[in-house]
């Protein structure tokens, strides 16, 4: 399927921030790959919503923790949408709230496999398609980090926070490495956002509990995060790389 539209891959796009980014990207003219791990039904709903608005989208399964599946994801996009111009590394996992003294190495490895290794492999595959020496025309990558990288998530998710700290460093290093290729690499750090992820950590009401500690006195929305992500793909951001936008209500 060839198209003159720019092509974007959004990982972990079946729900939450990823779904909001996919919808907004489609509205702004991108052909979008909605990646998911298990929730095919949810990914199909996002694709259907995009198509209902006249956009172009496909759903492709791939577990970010599995290098071979990531490679197959990019190959599927090559075949069905064309060469990728934009990548949003949004897929991320966390586990039940826990202190470091109670964590085992297997848990930490699971977090890092998706949040760091998976993101890096996605970046690799994107650069192999975007860089002019590989026949590309440049592009842009946005990593969805977290203010946890700066705050550390003590008593809850230090392992998750550490993975996001690594993602921030990847953003800085890669941005300098591929700048001459016409590829910009930036990151958005969401704060306390209303998504299903808090339930995954064992506390569905976490946003409301923390709202009073946030300067803006409320949790954020996925659409507010998506707007920041998409700014990095705009012409206005053409001179911006290795940068971060905090969408955290001032925290």
From TrEMBL:
One of its GO terms (molecular function) is oxidoreductase activity, acting on CH-OH group of donors. Keywords: Oxidoreductase. It holds the Pfam family adh_short_C2. Belongs to the short-chain dehydrogenases/reductases (SDR) family. PANTHER family: NADPH-DEPENDENT ALDEHYDE REDUCTASE-LIKE PROTEIN, CHLOROPLASTIC-RELATED, RE15974P. This is NAD(P)-dependent oxidoreductase. It comes from Bordetella genomosp. 7.
